[in-house]
Amino acid sequence: MKQNKALGVGLGFTAGYVDTVGFVSLFGLFTAHVTGNFVLIGSELARPSHGVLIKFLAFPSFVLAVALTRMIVIWLERQGKAPLRTLFAVQVGFLAAFMLLGHFALPIQGTDALIVLLAGMAGAAAMGVQNAASKLAMNDIAPTTVMTGNVTQLVIDLVDLIRGSTDTAIPIRISKFLWPIIAFGLGAIGGAYAYLYAHFWALLLPIAILGWFAATD
User: Fold this and answer.
1) CA dist list (Å): 207 to 3, 36, 91, 93, 116
2) How many other C-beta atoms lie within 10 A of the C-beta of residue 214?
3) HSE value, Cβ hemisphere, 13 Å, CA-based, for 95
4) Structural contact between residues 213 and 14, judged by C-beta atoms closer than 8 angstroms
């Protein structure tokens, strides 16, 4: 249970942090989830501003990363190996690419330069791996990349708890969903401030978190 809580907190923080770094540095790109980028694509098409291409490219990057994650899990399971350590390593690789490509793209004046597009694609791929890994190898923890469903379930459980429900699963679910939500929020705040002071080197923190999980899995 403690290990599950640590994963939920660490990955929730990572998702909020990386998503905010991408949003701040790449003119509103959401790296951690597809929904926000659909909205941004619609907005950019209707009222063009900083370019829609990077939002379009984030989608296939995300999808391909999910497909890659699935194939890695199948391959390792056929060999009788647990996939989580490898998946963390793959995500670290994509995050490192995001960090280095973004660093060498500075100062970023727009999103049309090839190196900027590649940085956004690497960031989206990194979070695609985390999204897929949550479903394929971490079913016992709450989703860590998109908080809408988590907040919905948390509010439902809190209402039932206040009503006096005797369901013993409610406190367990509250703990399961609450901590990733808090961690995501803290990660979002931390990512914004870290980028202001360290630019893309700020991504060293989530890389370190994932590296620790890979080493201790």
Assistant:
1) 19, 23, 8, 9, 20
2) 17
3) 27
4) no
DSSP-derived secondary structure letter, 4:
H
Contact 206, 195 (CB under 8 A): no
Are 51 and 115 spatial neighbours (Cβ–Cβ below 8 Å)?
no
Amino acid sitting at position 104:
F
Domains of the chain: residue spans and CATH: 2-216 (1.20.1250)
The neighbour count for residue 129, using CB atoms within 10 Å, is: 26
How far is the C-alpha of 200 from the C-alpha of 194, rounded, in Å?
9
What whole-number percentage of the chain has pLDDT above 90?
A: 76
Is pLDDT larger for residue 54 or for residue 87?
Answer: 87
Tokens representing 21?
A: 């770094």
* CB burial string 159-171: b at 16+ within 10 A, e below: eeeeeeeeeeebe
Backbone angles phi, psi at 139, to 5 degrees: -65, -15
Taking the C-alpha atoms of residue 24 and residue 108, their distance in angstroms, rounded to an integer, is 11
Contact (Cβ atoms closer than 8 angstroms) between residue 173 and residue 212: no
Q: Tokens representing 39?
A: 């909205």
Inter-CA distances, 56 with 9, 42, 64, Å? 30, 10, 13
pLDDT digits (tens, 9 = 90+) for 123-169: 999 999 999 999 999 988 998 998 999 999 999 999 999 999 888 99
